[in-house]
C-alpha cells in the first residue's frame, strides 16, 4: 500500500552526485512529488607501501616501520604482517592523512624467520577497497662458524674470532 520500486541501470552515469525525482497522481487528480539524492562511487581507492623494514634481523625486529601513500584522507589503512615461518600475524592500522600513512615501532618477535609479507588495505566511504603488498626476509638467528680441520702446531697459535654477522678475523702469533 503506497510502496513501489524500480531497478535502474546507472552504469552510463559518471561517478558523483546523482538526484532523482518521482511523481504520482491519484484518481482525484492530486499529484505528489518526491526527490532524493545519492553519491555514485565505483572507483577503488589507492594505497601503496613505499618504505618498509627490509631485511628484518636481530638488530631491528622490534622496531619495524612501514609507510606508504593512500587516497582517502581520514580513513583507515589496515596493516597485516605475516611470515612463511609461522607465528602470530600482526594486525594493526593507521589513519590516512595528507595522502600518507605510517606505522612505526612494530615488534615482529612473534613471527618466525622466513619471508615477511606486509599487506596494506584501504577502503573508501562507499565500500570500495584495494590492497598492496611487499615482502622482506626475516632472519634473526645467530650464525655460527666452526672449523674442525684447523691446522695445529707448536709454532703457531691461532684464534678465530667469529661475530654474529659471520665476519672472520684471524689472529696469528708465532
Q: How does this structure look, described?
A:
The chain has 174 residues and is mainly beta. It is built from no helices and twelve strands. It has strands at residues 16-25, 31-40, 51-52, 56-57, 64-69, 76-83, 90-95, 100-106, 114-123, 129-139, 157-162, 168-173.
Topology readout:
Blueprint: E1 16-25, E2 31-40, E3 51-52, E4 56-57, E5 64-69, E6 76-83, E7 90-95, E8 100-106, E9 114-123, E10 129-139, E11 157-162, E12 168-173
Parallel strand pairs: 4-10
Antiparallel strand pairs: 1-2, 3-5, 5-8, 6-7, 6-9, 9-10, 11-12
Dominant shape:
rod-shaped
Number of helices: 0
Largest β-sheet summary: 5 strands, mixed
Order of helices and strands: EEEEEEEEEEEE
Spatial sequence of strands, sheet with the most strands: 4-10-9-6-7
Helix % is: under 10%
Name the assembly state.
single chain
Report the end-to-end length measured between terminal Cα atoms: 107 Å
Rounded radius of gyration (Å)? 31 Å
Residue fraction in strands: over 45%
